[in-house]
């Protein structure tokens, strides 16, 4: 069983694209919330992400992972695959 992965993005954000590519390359299905120009959605994301308003914001099993740099750091440390696997 795989983890529930959610990512808040803007369509043209290069960091969002990099984060999604990492997940795709790992074969991970994720739910994407495109919040381009939607301040209501951005405020909701910010509340969920401990006040962070930058994109992307990534959640694995409802735990806030952070942004693009954070998910790549987890991958380099060998911790990401464990987070993506449930059970």
TrEMBL record:
UniProt organism field: Anabaena cylindrica (strain ATCC 27899 / PCC 7122)
Family affiliation: Belongs to the glutaredoxin family.
Domain of life assignment: Bacteria
Chain coiled-coil ranges: none
Pfam families reported for this sequence: Glutaredoxin
Single GO term (MF): glutathione disulfide oxidoreductase activity
GO CC terms: cytoplasm
Keyword Oxidoreductase (UniProt): no
Protein purpose: Has a glutathione-disulfide oxidoreductase activity in the presence of NADPH and glutathione reductase. Reduces low molecular weight disulfides and proteins.
GO biological processes: cell redox homeostasis; cellular response to oxidative stress
Record protein name field: Glutaredoxin
Taxonomic lineage of the native organism: Bacteria, Bacillati, Cyanobacteriota, Cyanophyceae, Nostocales
Sorted UniProt keywords: Cytoplasm, Disulfide bond, Electron transport, Redox-active center, Transport
Domain Glutaredoxin: start-end pairs: 5-65
């Amino acid at each position: 069983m795989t983890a529930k992965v959610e990512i808040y993005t803007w369509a043209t954000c290069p960091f969002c694209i990099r984060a999604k590519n990492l997940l795709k390359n790992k074969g991970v299905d994720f739910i994407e919330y495109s919040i381009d120009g939607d301040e209501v959605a951005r405020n909701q994301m910010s509340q969920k992400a401990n006040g962070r308003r930058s994109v992307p914001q990534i959640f694995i099993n409802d735990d806030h992972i952070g942004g693009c740099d954070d998910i790549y750091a987890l991958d380099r440390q060998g911790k990401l695959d464990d987070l993506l696997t449930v059970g």
